[in-house]
Amino acid sequence: MNNSEETIEDAILAFTMGETRDALDILDKLIKENPDSIDVWRALAEVRLSNGQLDQAEEACSKALELNPDDLTSVVSLARILVNKGDKEGAEAASAKARVLGWKEELADENE
């Protein structure tokens, strides 16, 4: 596990322990240091979603999807964010994409 992964784990632990501000501070610092880290954007999206910061969660998730448009985890997060925002059509589109990506992963695993 590299330093960035350990720090992400620290942020997730802080959030789990109810220290949301600390978790967000850690993730915001990591974003500045590693703006191309999909793992950091994913974690930030999830913490912001859980904290009810839907617009910021969607923005973080969008950044992750800019880095990898076919990232299943980020697409699922986007669907959850859009459901919470009341965007039924967007959530349905993201969910459909997640299903397709999930099937592709299953097929790839079967062919290995």
Could you characterize the architecture of this molecule?
With 112 residues, the chain is mainly alpha-helical. It is 82% helix and 0% strand. The chain has 6 helices and no strands. The longest helix has 23 residues, at 88-110. The protein is globular. It starts with a helix and ends with a helix. The model has no long low-confidence stretch (mean pLDDT 92).
Compute the average pLDDT: 92
* E-strand count: 0
In angstroms, what is the radius of gyration?
A: 15 Å
- Described by its quaternary structure, the protein is single chain
Summarize the helices and strands and which ones pair or pack.
Elements lengths: L2 H14 L3 H14 L4 H13 L3 H14 L4 H14 L2 H23 L2
Task: List descriptors.
single chain, 112 residues
Would you summarize the structure shown here?
82% of the residues lie in helices and 0% in strands.
